[in-house]
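User: Write out your own:

AI:
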Amino acid sequence: MKSLVVLGDSVGFGVGDEDNMHPNKGVGAFLHRSLPGFTKYANHSRPGARMREVFEVQLPRALEHEPDVVVLIAGGNDVLRQNFDPTDIYWSMYGTITTLKERGVEVLTMKLHDPNRKIRLPKRLARLLHQRVETLNHIIDDVSQLLGAQCLDVRKIDLTYDQRIWHIDRMHPNRTGYHLLATHFARLLHGQGHDVRDVTAPLVRTRSRKENVRWMLRMGLPWFLKRCKDLFPGVGYLLVLETSKDVARALRKRRGRQLPTGHSERRFAHLDTTTEHRGGIETNFANRPSQAAA
């Protein structure tokens, strides 16, 4: 008997899949149905979980199932927090996958899509969010390659930004979107020799505007208010930080334009500008180890 386990955050949990007819939802449920040789399935994901929680809390629970395949989808909540820590994300992910690999578990990971293509945000916040997502994706890609985990790059899926696969909140896939992700994960496993079968795509009824408003009032607003305590201070801090950087850049640029003629020459007149001295500087830089080598 083979076992499939899902670890991660709300995407791994299946938020956005509103099929109340099945107890198991989301990408894990679809993937399990597409693997005829897997008789056991467990999902330890939790909405709001960060990468460290996956390592410290979810991983020990997963090991109890003696999994053969683990799907790890996490990092989105780290990106949205004030104390974003790439180093902590890296080592938490590294520890999770290393522990699983030592037990012969096959690991599937997933990079994030570009949220700015789904949600319109203020310019500075959008820029910062883009930088963080890129950093997270680099970590996921690097750790996956280093440890031999199969990584799904959702940006290469044609329908990733199609509105039809997204939930009303635009943050999570809907049932169709989870089916799409499961299909691509199944292809990765098929490439590793696993027996895979097609799972019929679900029929998702289009919501009316009235139903969308009702959902936002019943579900979206309570979630928003719950997150305000943590999210708002962080967002405010990030906006102030980005604004201060823009102001500093503008001031430096303005001061550069206002320097009097000959100021730069007087400022650097004490430096040796002979060809021999410049060559020495260039040689020093050329001999410095690069960051990649370090």
About this structure: Residues 263-294 have pLDDT under 50 and may be disordered. The CA atoms of residues 33 and 194 lie 13 Å apart.
